[in-house]
Structure formats: C-alpha cells, structure tokens
Design brief:
Layout lengths: L8 E5 L6 H11 L4 E2 L3 E2 L14 E2 L2 H9 L3 E7 L2 E6 H9 L4 E4 L2 H11 L3 H6 E7 L3 H11 L4 H15 L7 E4 L3 H16 L12
Parallel strand pairs: 1-7, 1-8, 2-7, 3-4, 8-9
Antiparallel strand pairs: 3-6, 5-6
C-alpha cells in the first residue's frame, strides 16, 4: 500500500481584531508537526528576530528579482517594505507530505487563491480558512477596547475589516471566533479532515 500522501496548505486569514494571531498560535502549539510557512521581507530584522526562523530577510533588489521570476505565490508592498510567500515554501513541503500552515492577511489569501487557479498542485492542496468575528459590533468593541489606536485608525480598521469579510465566499471555511477554544478546535478539525481527503492520496494508495 502506498502511503506518501500530499500534504495540505492551510491558509488562515482574517481582519484586524478577530484574534487570528492568538488562534493560530494555539493551533501551532497543539499541532507541533505543522510546518509554518516563513515569509520573505525587505525590512530589517527586529531585536531577537532570526533569519530563516521568523522571516527570510532579503534585499529589495533580490525581492524584485524573485517577483520578476514569478517565485512568490503572494506578496504585498507595505509602506516602504515588501513581504511575500515563496511558492517553494509551500510546494516543496506538500510534495514531501508535510502540512504547511500559513497565517496571512486576506489580500495574500486571495492572491494564493488566484495562483491556485493556474497551478494544479496548489489547487489540490490548498484549504482556505477565514477567521470571522461573531458580529461586526463585537469586532468594533474589541478594537475600541484595545485603547491602542486613535478613533481615526479604528474607523479605518473597521472599514478595512468590512471589506475583507465581504470576500468570505472565496474561502472554503469560515470559523467564527466567539469562543477561543472552540475556534482553535474548529481550525484543527479542518486540518485533520484535509489530511484525510482522497485527492491527497497517491494513485497506488490501496494497492
């Protein structure tokens, strides 16, 4: 019996204030075999950050060259820096049967969805999960209770969140973060179910 299944690429995204970092952090703690996709960036490392662990820190020239070579499945220009996910970070790992976890923003997830439409392997292995608030009112309360942003910044974040949540049909799953433990459990259930999909299995699996 063949047993080299394809791995899954689990893409989790959600608007600011939805608790994505907390949920994703707990999922990774509970599922240590998950491989975390490391992004590239042109920004300088912050104190304590290690190249190849937190990010791949590369020059702008190198980044632009890789963009021209179509090496990224998603990238974004954020202020003066560029961030992106190398296709090799995902494709090489899923071919080895590893499950890859991507914690990225909605813009990045939509870029990967578009890339998957042109790449049969990506189309087969990607699972898109949108983390959503129980209601827009609760999201607004969470953002205001942080007391770290100005009123103007909060309004901008809310407008962006409303726009991002409007793309929910582009995802395979929506997980509502009403109860943290349940949201973590829901994401883990999706990952386990993805591992059992028949289209991840080799042709000779039952031979």
């Amino acid at each position: 019996m063949g047993n080299q299944r394809l791995g899954s690429a689990i893409i989790v995204s959600g608007p600011s204030g939805v608790g994505k970092s907390t949920v994703c952090g707990k999922v990774r703690e509970n599922m240590p075999d998950l491989k975390f996709s490391i992004s590239c960036t042109t920004r300088q490392p912050r104190t304590g950050e290690v190249d190849g662990v937190h990010y791949y820190f590369i020059t702008r020239e190198e980044f632009e060259k890789r963009i021209a070579n179509d090496e990224f499945i998603e990238y974004a220009r954020v202020f003066d820096n560029i961030y992106g996910t190398l296709a090799s970070e995902v494709i090489e790992r899923v071919r080895r049967g590893e499950d890859v976890f991507l914690d990225i923003d909605v813009q990045g997830a939509l870029q990967i969805r578009a890339a998957a439409e042109k790449n049969e392997l990506l189309k087969k292995v990607c699972e898109f999960v949108l983390l959503a608030p129980p209601s827009f009112e609760i999201l607004e309360n969470r953002l205001r209770s942080r007391a770290t942003d100005s009123a103007e910044q909060i309004e901008m974040r809310l407008a962006k969140a409303k726009h991002e949540l409007s793309f929910y049909r582009h995802y395979d799953y929506v997980v509502v973060n009403d109860d943290l433990d349940k949201a973590v459990c829901d994401v883990e259930s999706i990952i386990r179910a993805a591992a059992a999909r028949t289209d991840r299995l080799p042709e000779d699996f039952l031979q």
